Hints:
single chain; mainly alpha; 3-stranded parallel sheet; 8% strand; disordered N terminus
Amino acid sequence: HKISARPKTRSRRTxxxxxxxxxxxxxxxxxxxxxxxxxxxxxxxxxKTQRTHGRQAQLGNIAAARAVADIIRSTLxxxxxxxxxxxxxxxxxxxxxxxxxxREVDVSHPTAKSMIELSRAQDEEVxxxxxxxxxxxxxxxxNAEPFARANVHPTVIVRGYNYALQxxxxxxxxxxxxxxxxxxxxxxxxxxxxxxxKFSSRWNDIMIDMALKAVLTVARETPMPSLLPGDxxxxxxxxxxxxxxxxxxVEKIPGGEISDxxxxxxxMFNKDVTHSxxxxxxxxxxxxxxxxPLEYKKGESxxxxxxxxxxxWNTLLKMEEEYVENMCMEIxxxxxxxxxxxxxxxxxxxxxxxKADITAFRRLRKTDNNRV
Length: 372
């Protein structure tokens, strides 16, 4: 009997036609997601997403700025109050500093985020006025709201604010005074206006003296090109540079009172000597700063050593001791009085340093090492 193969061929064709049809449908769906020719892609957004534009968006921005300003409005002025904040870790912060308060606020509105960023920039650049700058910005936007509702174009409102800015700058130039850094009384008055609201009046004098002394200790004169064309005395004029973040640090020690605080002209770190026989008081020392460990270096990958003879084990220990000894001898050759490292110091290295009458400190913070 002969069997015809036509039905199989037909069924195979039918399957192939079905696949082609499915590919065509998928292609049409892909074209639909890309959007019509010459247009952008079609985005599928969350159902809760809101989109505002025009006058409604402007009024929403003003409302967000007003909300941020109202948060810290009560912390400004002679009758200001402190805010008690609870952070996610359970810690409690009591402060009236605008930047410190807004740093803990979690907002999603872009205008509110810009206001918080404004406070952070003020704190980094000036160090004071973080609350005032937020309240001023909020008030300016609130005063612009009637004009926005009266269909005045935003560029016209901004132009008016620019005129006011130029006028304010000219008035500031007339009121400005030249302050001598060495005039202690005038400098104390300036600092008083900054930190007068931050502490109780009982400790104000101590805090002002400490702040002034600390800043003057780390202040450095750096030459810079003279901006005045007729200044023939020298090509460079002196500019005071005060880098508080790198050179000034507050060390907190439990116990005592605020009156016990003082400014140290030097670097302080809460570390003990690594060996009991090392010197604790050294005047005019030679200091060697390291960021490497003074102990046997372990391999980067995990290695197993199989030893069959007891002498080989002693040889292995001796090689480790010789490695540490060579490091210590190279350091001792420089004849330092103090060795400070950011990593560990082995017992053998401590022995060699104590024998050479060298004091060693280990595991110091990178910032403290840089300040030393």
